[in-house]
Predict the 3D structure of the following.
Amino acid sequence: MVFIWTQFGVKHKNVNVKCKVRVMHRDDSSSSSSSGESSRSEQEAPCLSIKPVGKDFYKVLGVAPDSNEDEIKRAYRKLALKFHPDKNSDADAEDKFKEIAEAYEILTDPKKRSIYDQYGEEGLKNGSGMSMAGHSSTHCSDVKGDARATFASFFHGSDHFDIFFEPDLDSEEDLFNPFSRFAFSHVGGFSHHEGGLRRGRRRLQGVAVVHDLLVTLEEVLRGCTKHIKVTRSRLNLDGRSLRSEDKVLNVVVKKGWKAGTKITFPREGDETPNNTPADVTFVLKDKKHSQFKREGSNIVYTAKITLKEALCGCTVNVPTLDNRMMPLPCSDIIKPGAKRRLRGEGLPYPKSPSQRGDLVVEFQVLFPDRIPPQSREIIKHSLGKC
């Protein structure tokens, strides 16, 4: 008679543990032996590895068993966009989408992932298996959840949001900002963009309300805070009717910011039924200045001089943005359109506010309307040698 006793290992993160097989032989004639002991032989033999029963969630997401949470999230993001049933018309897209969501829910929960790594999908269903390892009972119904809710929560942090999208993500910016390509309409749907997108069926956000924000060059030089009152629509408690309310937004303009810079206040705009409030965006515009015009971080001042000053030399007093006067000696002949620079008297650089651009002095030569005959002869005689 042969008795076989096996000692099986378990699978931890897809690493198979060897098992031992002990074979015990008992001869029929051994019963007459005075010792009463059986002759035994023991040997190690290879055995099949024990694999967790159920789905391989790492394979579902296309990640390695030792992947970290960021790698799992990136994999889920890519696959969820690809197989969303509202975008993918394949027959198995919805099942694949649910399977991806289930894998993500389990592998991003440290406790569920630990149970799955040791006991597989069956371990999540079988409370007794986990109690042996000191874990509380967990059922698969707890981890499957709603695939659409998982998707909405992942991309927008709310289960009241649903999007339609283009899954062709070809850059890091697209990957981490899945809404960067989509324009929204006030009525809760997507506008016609990049070939057209279908309308969302859940809670969407309206188009940002855009306002121009006029700033003077002096404000750009020093930086400032603008207190802007906006009037917006807000839902009443019944969720249907609207009320009008005012709110003051504090718009911070930093030193050196250029025209066209956008400052956005999320969800501070109008709210309509079934939509989240729109954003409010301010776009910087340079207010016309009486003395200077702006060229990037430089400012330009036009100095008007006479023909005599242009030919014979002069000293021009140039104003600055901080109300100083800087003398600029000009001993050479100044031609119309000539420029001189006062270094570091312009606007701060946006990325390095401690440094400033230049104040560019552009000369405009004023020619006389007429010259007396006597002066004409003198000038003709003097210029004849030039």
